[in-house]
Amino acid sequence: MHGFEDILGQEAIIRHFEDALVTGKLSHAYILAGEEGFGKHLLADRIAAALLCTGEENIHPCGMCVSCIQAEAGTNPDIIYVTHEKQLITVGDVRSQVVDDVQVKPYVGKYKIYIIDEAERMNEQAQNALLKTLEEPPSYVVILLLAANTGSFLPTILSRCITLALKPVRPEAIAELLITRYNLPDYMARTCASFSGGSIGKAIRYATDAEFVSTRDEVIRLMSNIDHMSHADLMGSLSFFGDEKSRGNDSHKVDDFLDMLSLWMRDMLMFKATQDPNRLVFRDSIIDIKRQAALRSFENINDAIDAIEKARKRLRAFVYFDIAMEMLLMALRAL
Ligand SMILES: [Zn+2]
């Protein structure tokens, strides 16, 4: 597959580039914003291929020309993937791979496309270096910044880029994909899709990860019993994470666990507001959700959701796993 037809849910962004190509009003810089797993990379790859395609149809990549074949193989010399070795993207990375490189004309294509992944990791100096290029870009340059969020960009960067936000994909479309492409049984595809929060990447990971079911079961076990568990039992439940503890926020198991706790709380808000069990992600646990929803106020549930995000931040800041999780579990109790 080479065109845009296998990209789910991002029709508005694709239409934007189709229009830009037809009218010739392409901007020099775009921010593709969307959470991990929303499909930023695939989308950026296809946009780059479409811009450079030499086939007859000039809107969608044809998949047949040399440029498309090279793009598909990741070897198109006019598509530059900006890499970084450290946690942050430094001014050195931006200078050597973008600022100093843009003056060199494209090898073959009409455009030279720079794809900067995790662009939110550019520190201020790196962004200021990039700004020079954004202020006076050579006519053939197109820069695609891929970012989970736009909060860390300088206003001057934002004002020179067109920001396009990726949309979460409908769970039905994700389930369909898991059934047809990954041969998942129907009920499992629906479960993974509803837990994915609209992220195809997450859904695929759940579908192919044996731990998904055990993490889900652990969240159900914990949240169904949390109000009666002793402090020792609560701390004992952390043994579920085994060696993953030391990896903190880098662990998918920990990350998924926190995501699912959030979904549990969201289910409770949903049930309190609608009384409709069909809208719940944890549909199987309706009895516990109902019981807890009756015990908790909206405020209490919101506080619990805040506590989950706080735990995420603490783990990211390298607070000890057991301490961050103890604070979280205590905050999740209803009373
Ligand atoms: Zn082509």
Describe what this molecule looks like in 3D.
The N and C termini lie far apart (about 55 Å). Helix 5 (about 125-135) links the parallel strand 3 (about 110-115) and strand 4. Helix 2 (about 40-50) runs antiparallel to helix 3, helix 4 runs parallel beside helix 5 (about 125-135) and helix 12 (about 250-275) packs across helix 13 (about 285-295). The protein has a five-stranded parallel sheet with strand order 2-3-4-1-5, with helices on both faces. Helix content is about 55%, strand content about 5%. The chain has helices at about 10-25, 40-50, 65-75, 90-100, 125-135, 155-160, 170-180, 185-195, 200-210, 210-225, 230-235, 250-275, 285-295, 300-315, 320-330, and strands spanning about 30-35, 80, 110-115, 140-145, 160-165. It has two domains: about 10-165, P-loop containing nucleotide triphosphate hydrolases (Rossmann fold, 3-Layer(aba) Sandwich), CATH 3.40.50; about 210-330. It has 15 helices and five strands. It is α/β, with parallel strands linked by helices. Bound molecules: zinc ion. Zinc ion (ZN) binds next to helix 3.
